Amino acid sequence: MSVTTVNATTPAVRKTQQPDKANKRRVKPRDLAIGLVLPLTILLLWQVAAQRAWISPIFLPLPSTTLFSFFDMVERQSFHIDFLASISIVTQAFVYGTLLGVGLGIAAGLSQTVERIFGPTLDGIRHIPGIAWLPLIVLWVGIGPAAKIVVITKTVFFPVFLNTLQGIRAVEKNFIELADVLTLTRWQLVRKVIIPGAMPSILVGVRYGASLAWALVVVAEGLSGMEGIGYLIFRAQSLLMTDQLLVCMVVIGVVGFLIDRSMALLQRHVLRWKQGFEG
Length: 279
What we know:
By secondary structure, the protein is mostly helical. The chain has one domain: MetI-like fold. The chain has helices spanning 2-25, 29-51, 63-76, 79-110, 112-126, 130-141, 145-169, 173-181, 186-223, 229-238, 242-270.
């Protein structure tokens, strides 16, 4: 009787809580204004420092000069081609690294034998920075996109793999015991108990891997290749084109922010059933 009572009242409780959660998560103008305070302050300091020549214009051009350089790069230097090249590499590497990380993480989480087979080797490889593999991989496959994809895939793989493994191992033992009482099959246990229980940790790894992928592509393109935003940054540095260097930095920051916000929205959508402290 007690179980029936809980199940009967739970939907009603959820219905009353959903509007409150929606109201809390709605972006308010005040919150948006608070978030713009620091960027606008930095922009103002940049304008003042450049206008008063606290730093040489060669090294710190005006914001307006940087903005004009952005339009010039788009119209005359095919900036969009380099941008799309970077996005293509990051997307492919992120997908490969995520699929490998989740797949092997689930296998290792469900089987200690799999963890013993792959664990020591992966722990050794994990401590070698992805960028350290780049020269060797370039010798194997050349300086094309393939080398960068391999390096970034390796970088994405490990946070996804470790968070997936940890998420599965952190599933409450009470849930496993309840599944045994309900005589769930192995597949039902994995699908209905283990994967949902590990999903918060998995999504943290995926979100972190996406940020790493976008950050590393800049370094990889700068060290090997003739296209991409990373290549433009290193070229601008060597030619003292600081305005173009700042354009690339701003674009990297904006795109990185959008990637992180998109992953946060995905995380919030997938975990909409999970209630926690909202700050």
